[in-house]
Amino acid sequence: MFLHNDSPCTLGQLMCAKLVLTSLLVLLNCLPCSFIFRIIILGYKKPLEREDLFELNERDSSYIVCPIFEKQWRKEVLKNQERQKVKSSFHKEAHTRKPSLLRALWNTFKFVLIQVALFRVFADVLSFTSPLIMKQMIIFCEHRPDFGWSGYGYALALFVIVFLQTLILQQYQRFNMLTSAKIKTAVIGLIYKKALLLSNVSRKKFSTGEIINLMSADAQQLMDLTANINLLWSGPFQILMAISFLWQELGPAVLAGVAVLVFVIPMNTLVANRMKNQTKNKDKQIKLLNEILHGIKILKLYAWEPSYKKKIIEIREQELEVQKSAGYLAVFSMLTLTCIPFFVSLATFGVYFLLDEGNILTATKVFTSMSLFNILRLPLFDLPMVISAVVQTRISLVRLEDFLNTEDFHPRSIETKYIGGQQFLFVFNNYLTSSLNIKIPEGALVAVIGQVGSGKSSLLSAILGEMEKLKGVVQRKGSVAYVSQQAWIQNCILQENILFGSVMQKQLYERVLEACALLPDLEQLPNGDQTEIGERGVNISGGQRHRVSLARAVYSGADIYLLDDPLSAVDVHVGKQLFEKVIGSSGMLKNKTRILVTHNLTLLPLMDLIVVMESGRVAQMGTYQELLSKTKNLTNLLQAFSEQEKGEDTVKNKPKIQGVKFSIILKYLQAFGWLWVWLNVATYLGQNLVGIGQNLWLSAWAKEAKHMNDFTEWKQIRSNKLNIYGLLGLTQGLFVCSGAYVLTRGSLAASRTLHAQLLDNVLHLPLQFFETNPVGQMVNRFTKYLAIFKLLKQFCLHLPNRLFLSRQIRRLAGASRSPVLSHFSETLLGVSTIRAFGHEQRFIQQNKDVVNENLVCFYNNVISNRWLSVRLEFLGNLMVLFASLLAMQAGNSMDSAIVGLSISYALNITQSLNFWVRKACEIETNAVSIERVCEYENMDKEAPWIMSKRPPSQWPNKGIVEFVNYQARYRDDLGLALQDITFQSHGEEKIGIVGRTGAGKSTLSNCLFRIVEGSGGKIIIDGIDISTIGLHDLRGKLNIIPQDPVLFSGTLQMNLDPLDKYSDGELWEVLELCHLKEFVLSLPKKLLHEISEGGENLSVGQRQLVCLARALLRKTKILILDEATASIDFETDNLVQTAIRKEFSDCTILMIAHRLHSIIDSDRVLVLDSGRITQFETPQNLIHQKGLFFDMLTEAGITQD
Question: Pairing mode, if any, of strands 445-450 and 593-597?
Fold first, then answer.
């Protein structure tokens, strides 16, 4: 329109422009972050993998960052100690000052933080240069004859300025994000190391969840603040600069705008703080979800899913109410973000007119002022948020400092001196109430026995130095290997679990496998000893976990072995082999010092020394014959308890790399509600159209004022113009408020719908799913989807964007975060084992490895975003250049007001593109969250809870259980776990189920509850095929006392009666039957005693008795006991068995037991071997047949009498 094709000057200009563009494109490829182009090409051709990413510079890796920061932290600790010494030397009772984490961070990263701040200074200064150049261009358009070709110079200068601003700002973002990530890395490294060194007393102050929260939340909070910390000074700097330039344009009238800012900023800060505080209310739901998912087997066995689903929904509704309040607070934030520049400009222009009736708004004043007002927008919005973040980060710093300044584990409490040819142990601490004097000869085999809570495990902990020592000494010689009561297994291959960092010695390794009875298990595992073991070892049995843990200790070649009841989880045959080939006088450890916690009476004659613990003291100590001579009833004296472990399954979660399907977005929109969708689109369009109308009105106002010669006429229309401008602003504010309200309502609806669907889908998944997926991942999906709160508005803004590179690297980064938390959680569970083996440094190095992997992915993600931002902003810069050149070329045909408006919008495009890229990435991430939530919808579910065919209300009334040619396997790719099982019980019959490890005993009980579905045949209970009825109709009519004693946090009463169906009298009655009444009466709150997460404040034996009491309340016609008394002593076991016989005398009982004396009085015994029935007869007939059952009795030392 402005150029003529026949003009030679125009042709030259086009050639010149082409040359400039070519040069600029060459320059772009030479800019920082251009090396990422190779990954972009690779990501376009194939899905990116970790190996495709660029490595970090060595100075930025966790291997360098962590040691440097730890050195600065140690200096800070030493300085603090010196200050305290100086104060004490002057007898000053001064306030105890802790070492400052903030000061240590500053000393470590101060130079790079200063460098980042300088980048920000240059970027901020350049941001104010653009409005000044635009001002000169508008003046040039108004006085073109006086300036000539200088207008092109202004256009080129404006382009250079905005281009330099882009480069500097992106370099600022690059260094800023990397520095913040390095700070997080350093803090994580310090937290991890501290967690390994934490003393037992200090550990009591912090739960495992709290320590994990320090790493996942507080360290992240510190990183987030670091990324925005420069806004603390940059925001006020930009505001002051803008006010200074506005003063030059509008004089004292700008003070009216300042007054608006003074009023709005504190209000925004208050709102930001309120919104931050609202987010704390989700902890209760996460805690309950975590416990439910860990104890999902109990919920399924007892058909409690609807009850706990209701509890979660109730908590969720409370959280949604909080989210609603937060959403309404967000309405105010949205209003201020959008309308502050308008309110400031309205107040400023209004006062400008009032100060002097001769003041006229020219195009120069209008668009220069509006550009400055637009610069004010982001600092005014960000500053309150940053101030709020500072307050929150201060809280995080206090928590981190409290943790880092707690007492460390002191190896000096253990003296490794060799005294008199024997080990000498003397322990006194706050748990063992009396002093202990124990002498253990070198190479001796020692048994430690006692009742639940008598101090057996605490004795081993004292030897390890894990207990608080008040006085006395603990002396030992040589290295230590420790097998914990709850077997600790790492999430790695089985071979690595056994080697535990040691060098592979093939012959020794094979001897250990054979001695620990692991060779048959390796044949069953898919990949032998290369099989990936899940989180906490849940894809192997409890007995296998204990044997792997024992094998790890044996392979280590230590001098002293502390064995905390490793034989309790294996059957008699395997236990006998472990003792003979590993622990006993002819085993691999025969020349080592062995301290064994056990309940197996048959082993006591083989011991060199027996220690009987009672109430934290040594009640008896001596050889077997010495103790036997002191008491007539050895059974009453020797009461030993074993503990079991529980775990969760995990598999590798490979990140998905394909794009998010539109159907996922559509599903969210449906959950949002189409009414709210279209209202949101309408309010957003209205808001932007009114904003455009404001600028056009100002442009027309300035243009009209320029051509108005009569001052009186201008004075008459001025107030009218101002009123309309104010009305447009108020209309925009109304659209903003309406849009924020609509967004809040729709988001809450979507959140409620998606949460309900997710919860329902998860609870209907089969148990095998929970055994092959990490619980942490599922909990994360319940919480992560909350990040989609404002997805709809972003979707409306940025629907066209499909950035494959950012998506792939973000997913790699997301996948690399999980190993960091998983490794940390795993370490916290096994810290005693790690310290006992002396492998702290190896695990610290592993932590650096996984953190560094996450840092590499994060860095590549930052670089890819910067690469994209530079090029997108360069397009915006080109629009500024062409808009300026065309305005200059237009000559007198374009009014200065239009020039100002076009250049102002062109300048805003650069900022908008940057915002556009950031929000596009957020959409991709949030859409992935929705996709993961929806994944569970398409997974295979277990059978319906309720079906059309329902059994009679009194079913089962006889208790006849019949298996007909039944077969079952755990997965399609595995062999049959049960083969051709056929037998029938009589009503009110007690059947014992025995067999060696892996025979299929627990599988049989799982099939009865349809935890494992059959592959053939059928199970009939009182004439009804259980596969034809709903799961809850089946499980609600059966009763089981499971092997793993699972309790939930809450009161003891809630754990006994979660559905609140029984009276207190009934609860006390079952507690008495389980021999827990005296213990509960001794508790301050009795039935209202608070059970900690997982029942950690009860011993495992007590937990199992609580589970037994829970089953006694739920009296049904059929009872299954799956190793229900494995963790209680023999005497209590006999009493419990008597109670079960009495209370369930009219019921059919199926009892699975390793302790054969528990089932020797059964009506019949079912003997399993390799998933098949080998014998099914009365105990007397089986003994006469001299088959497998007779062999097991012989191995257990049970005679025919």
Answer: parallel
